[in-house]
Each structure stands twice: as structure tokens, then as C-alpha cells.
TrEMBL record:
Signal peptide: none annotated. Transmembrane segments: none annotated. Residues 18-146 form the SnoaL-like domain. This is DUF4440 domain-containing protein. It holds the Pfam family SnoaL_3. PANTHER family: NUCLEAR TRANSPORT FACTOR 2 (NTF2) FAMILY PROTEIN.
Length: 160
């Protein structure tokens, strides 16, 4: 019985570690901390990393992916992520995190203002992590904008 208990404890520890890695990813974005963000992605090219930002084409390879974050950080004065609907599933050394990114962001200031207008956006995201000797690292991030409200649509009638 203790073997089964150990497996559960190990799985719970892995899920917690993946959740911490996922949180660290968003916190690095909020702080504009490019060095930390770089360290959160899989190193080297053994497994090619990929990224899809909302409205962007697929970016593959560590160089292109990290350049995209440098560009976003350079053009975003303020960004904050409120994550909801976080789900984590695992198999072996791979973890899949799904979540809704409730984003509040602002661009560079215009005409002497401290900050440009703040914009809210909903994005559903999938983050794939791989276990490495240095902890869980991002293998792929895919963000897709939520274009319509979910839930019941009052204008739609269901047939009787």
C-alpha cells in the first residue's frame, strides 16, 4: 500500500511543480522579465519549441519564439494575467495545462499620459511542459482569442 501512496504523493508534487512553472511563465510576462522567461522554455533544439500568440502564425524554434516575447515586451507597457479554469493533466514527462487568460494590458503612453488606454482580452491557452533535470520547461504555448461570450444565447430559440 505504501507504494501506491508514494505514487499519489509524487503525482501531486509533479502537478504542483507544473502549476508553479505555469504561474512563473505568466509572472515573468507581467514583470517584462525576459531573462526569466527565457529560462522557462526548453533549452536547445532537441525538442523544437513552438508558440502561437493570438492572431499570429505558428512560431517554431527557440530563437523565433523568444524573439516574439522580446517584441511583445518592448511594445507592452503594462500587462496582467488573471488565470481561470486552470486544468493540468500529465503523462510521463509531459504535462498539459489549459487555462483562460483574462488579460488587462496597455500600450505605450500617448501625448504625455503615463499609460495608454487599458484593454481587456480573453484568451484560452494550452501550455505543454516537459520534465527536465532543471524542472518543468515550456515546450509549447498556444493562445487563441475568445471571440464570443460563452453560455446561453437568449436570441437563439431551441426547437420544442
Amino acid at each position: 500500500m505504501s507504494g501506491r501512496h508514494d505514487e499519489h504523493a509524487e503525482a501531486a508534487a509533479d502537478i504542483e511543480a507544473v502549476e508553479q512553472a505555469n504561474t512563473a511563465f505568466y509572472e515573468a510576462m507581467e514583470r517584462g522579465d525576459y531573462d526569466t522567461l527565457t529560462g522557462l522554455w526548453l533549452p536547445g533544439e532537441d525538442l523544437t519549441v513552438s508558440c502561437v500568440h493570438p492572431g499570429w502564425p505558428v512560431l517554431t524554434g527557440r530563437g523565433d519564439v523568444l524573439r516574439s516575447y522580446a517584441l511583445i515586451m518592448a511594445n507592452t507597457e503594462y500587462i496582467q494575467f488573471f488565470l481561470t479554469d486552470v486544468g493540468i493533466s500529465m503523462t510521463g514527462d509531459t504535462a498539459l495545462v489549459t487555462c483562460t487568460e483574462n488579460i488587462l494590458s496597455g500600450g505605450p503612453a500617448e501625448e504625455g499620459n503615463a499609460l495608454g488606454p487599458l484593454v481587456g482580452q480573453l484568451v484560452v491557452a494550452t501550455n505543454v511542459f516537459r520534465r527536465t533535470p532543471d524542472g518543468w520547461k515550456l515546450w509549447s504555448h498556444h493562445g487563441s482569442p475568445v471571440l464570443a461570450e460563452t453560455g446561453e444565447d437568449e436570441d437563439e430559440e431551441t426547437p420544442a
